[in-house]
Specification:
With 319 residues, the chain is mainly β. The protein has two helices and 20 strands. It has a domain at 1-55 and 72-108. It has helices at 193-198, 262-267; strands at 2-7, 11-23, 26-30, 39-43, 46-62, 66-83, 95-97, 100-102, 110-114, 116-119, 126-133, 139-145, 153-158, 163-173, 176-186, 189-191, 243-245, 248-259, 272-286, 310-318. The longest helix has 6 residues, at 193-198.
């Protein structure tokens, strides 16, 4: 469902609301260990997607020599699993896949991880949260533990951003034209596996992040970086420690051009002549240097090269 409107050739808007239900989704379903095959593919589950898309445009200045227009678009999107296949006892199945767990009432992009609780100031051990259970197995609270195998798993964030979109500025003055395109994302989480690899507790022959300078070194140190100890796997196992804010601001394109005056074009027997300078992927601001949340929508990172920064110049001639 959508609405479009305009006002006096100065303001324009478009609003779209969507809601979609998808069934028979294809997922990897775990097999019993006795089969010798880890997964099988199955058409299972039902998913609900809802969202809002808004586009706004305004002609800020519009006269003979100077024109300036601004266009902004934004999207808010959420999804939720509404049905999973049933277990033999009738309860809905839950499927753990990497850093996610598929279960009813949750997004397919929610992270299912140990929740990092910081560092023990006395011995530098990594701490994680675990549930406190009563005699009937009911959760009554939380406590910390330095045993990562005893740590509990929780939903600790969603890769889906709160808002994402783009902003376009177009400015022209006499023969000059300037266009600037910026894309952005607010909120959401990304699991920074590169940072996790650089935060190892002492693997020989591997690089470190400079954050390792803030590691625990002596009793009483207050920090969130565990002690260094070769083979200390509990220090950088998968956990919420390596979740980062997936928000970003990207300068996608800047183009500056100049149209030669009509008398010069006529003297050169040209219908149109334009000189331009353009740059793509000129800058990216993120919550952590080197992190590129644009790699994927599901909140995971890999060793994909970042998009090249390209600067070019040229002349467009029309005879």
């Amino acid at each position: 469902m959508g609405v479009e409107l305009g006002l006096f050739d100065h303001f324009r808007a478009e609003i779209d609301v969507f809601r979609r239900r998808s069934s028979n989704l294809l997922f990897q379903v775990p097999n019993p260990q006795s089969t010798g095959i880890e997964y099988k593919w199955g058409n299972i589950g039902t998913l609900k997607n809802t969202g809002l898309e808004v586009s706004l445009g305004v002609n800020i200045i519009n006269n003979r020599n100077l024109k300036w227009s601004l266009d902004v678009n934004a999207t808010h999107y959420k999804n939720k699993i509404t049905k999973m296949p049933s277990n033999p006892d009738g309860s809905p199945q839950e499927i753990i896949s990497g850093t996610k767990k598929l279960s009813e009432g949750h997004s397919i992009y929610e992270f299912w991880l140990r929740d990092y609780a910081g560092v023990d100031s006395q011995d530098g051990s990594a701490l994680y949260y675990k549930d406190i259970l009563d005699g009937q197995g009911n959760v009554t609270g939380k406590e910390t533990t330095n045993d990562h195998n005893a740590a509990s798993y929780y939903y600790v964030g969603d890769a889906i951003p709160d808002l994402y979109g783009g902003i376009t500025n177009n400015l022209s003055y006499k023969g000059f034209e300037l266009s600037v395109l910026v894309s952005y994302q607010l909120g959401g989480k990304i699991y920074d596996s590169h940072y996790a690899a650089l935060s190892h507790p002492g693997s020989y022959g591997h690089n470190w992040t400079t954050d390792i300078l803030n590691r625990w070194q002596k009793p009483g140190d207050v920090t969130d970086i565990p002690r260094l100890q070769n083979g200390y796997t509990a220090a950088n196992i998968q956990s919420s420690r390596f979740l980062a804010n997936a928000g970003y601001l990207s300068l996608r394109n800047v183009t500056l051009s100049y149209n030669l005056p009509r008398n010069i074009q006529k003297a050169l027997d040209l219908r149109n002549a334009k000189i331009f300078l353009t740059g793509d992927n000129l800058g990216l601001l993120t919550s952590r240097k080197g992190l590129n949340p644009q790699q994927s929508f599901n909140g995971t990172s890999d060793y994909t090269y970042v998009t090249n920064r390209v600067i070019s110049a040229g002349v467009n001639l029309t005879f």
